[in-house]
């Protein structure tokens, strides 16, 4: 199978954009990605795209042009963008086509997400206990993890502080003002131990990626970023995942993230130590901490020292969430996973400007996680 290559990237800034629909943002991101790749919409042979709550992606053909292109809608929670990318990469890898697009977008209303238990196959009691409120679920999960592995509340604050500092350097980020550690730690408590500045917010935005076969990418003559692996997994037994109705405290250590990460590393033929820059799901600060270990970059409990020593900073041993992640950018569900890939392409091209990772990075890693306990991982190289 031929590896898919990313030859064009486009983004509509995250945050709030009055007067534009999610579909409008998606179309804007597609146009930007096409221009970056130096191709026309009429050249595109297929597209995969999706959103969680802002409409069917295929209807954007009325904005882009009625070319008869094959356009497949994707809806898969927080893995919507990653699933669109997986579908597009598989299409190229199978040799069906040699030029396509993956696009994700969303436009969420203000306030917390409001999922209903029945929509996720859960009984009413799950919502009545408050567990459908993800701020409460993630607080419970990180409390348990902190007690198990000796993580301090200050380490949660360091994650958020880094996120806002990096976001201030990213043009597409929503929150672009640094927030100091003291302010983060003493801000309003939302769900103990997570304060207001430790959470991401539902947002708006869009990302599009143009993918090509290796042969076509080489002929195009631009910078080539290879998609070495794309893996997605659902939750195994006994794992403690969002919207999982119970947890077996005597169970094993397998999680959806550990499964997806292991599969991606195997497919790419590399180890965690080979990664130069990583974007990890940070729905809240605790998620980034747990996912550092679940993706194989450190052992459980080592995050305390990693954050204190600055190892995940832009100039650290493993820069994490170089554009501020979800905490600074917000989370439009359909676009969030593709934003991570977008950011890694920027980093591998050496085009990050004030947030550029030093040392000429060559391998980028992304990880997205969401309900109902699903994870998707990509590994890029140049």
UniProtKB/TrEMBL annotation:
The record's listing under Pfam families reads: Thiolase_C_1, Thiolase_N
User: Which keywords does this Swiss-Prot/TrEMBL entry list?
Assistant: Transferase
**What residues form the membrane-spanning segments?**
none
**Thiolase C-terminal domain span:** 253-379
Q: Does the keyword Repeat apply?
A: no
Report the GO molecular function annotations.
acetyl-CoA C-acyltransferase activity
Start and end of every Thiolase N-terminal domain?
6-173
Q: What is this protein called?
A: Acetyl-CoA acetyltransferase
Origin species, per record, is: Sphingomonas jatrophae
């Amino acid at each position: 199978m031929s590896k898919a290559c990313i030859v064009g990237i486009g983004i509509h800034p995250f945050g709030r954009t009055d007067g534009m629909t999610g579909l409008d943002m998606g179309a804007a991101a597609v146009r930007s990605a096409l221009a970056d790749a130096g191709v026309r919409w009429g050249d595109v042979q297929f597209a995969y795209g999706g959103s969680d709550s802002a409409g069917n992606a295929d209807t954007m053909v009325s904005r882009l042009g009625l070319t008869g292109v094959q356009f497949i809608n994707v809806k898969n929670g927080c893995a919507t963008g990653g699933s669109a990318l997986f579908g597009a990469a598989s299409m190229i890898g199978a040799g069906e086509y040699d030029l396509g697009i993956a696009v994700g977008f969303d436009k969420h209303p203000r306030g917390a997400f409001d999922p209903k238990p029945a929509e996720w196959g859960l009984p009413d009691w799950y919502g009545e206990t408050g567990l459908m409120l993800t701020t409460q679920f993630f607080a419970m999960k990180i409390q348990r993890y902190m007690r198990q592995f000796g993580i301090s509340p200050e380490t949660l604050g360091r994650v958020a502080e880094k996120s806002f500092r990096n976001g201030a350097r990213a043009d597409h980020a929503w929150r672009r003002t640094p927030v100091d550690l003291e302010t983060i730690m003493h801000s309003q408590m939302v769900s103990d131990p997570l304060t207001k500045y430790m959470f991401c917010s539902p947002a708006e935005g869009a990302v599009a990626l143009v993918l090509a076969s290796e042969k076509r990418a080489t002929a195009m003559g631009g910078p080539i970023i290879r998609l070495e692996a794309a893996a997605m997994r659902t939750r195994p037994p006994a794992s403690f995942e969002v919207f999982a109705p119970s947890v077996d405290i005597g169970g094993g250590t397998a999680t959806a993230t550990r499964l997806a990460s292991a599969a991606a590393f195997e497919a790419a033929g590399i180890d965690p130590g080979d990664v130069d820059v990583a974007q990890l799901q940070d729905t809240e600060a605790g998620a980034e901490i747990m996912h550092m270990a679940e993706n194989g970059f450190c052992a459980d409990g080592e995050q305390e020292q990693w954050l204190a020593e600055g190892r995940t900073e832009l100039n650290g041993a493993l820069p994490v969430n170089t554009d501020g992640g979800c905490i600074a950018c917000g989370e439009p569900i359909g676009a969030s996973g593709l934003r991570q890939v977008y950011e890694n392409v920027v980093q591998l091209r050496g085009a990050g400007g004030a947030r550029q990772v030093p040392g000429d990075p060559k391998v980028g890693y992304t990880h997205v996680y969401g309900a109902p306990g699903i994870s998707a991982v990509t590994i890029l190289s140049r």
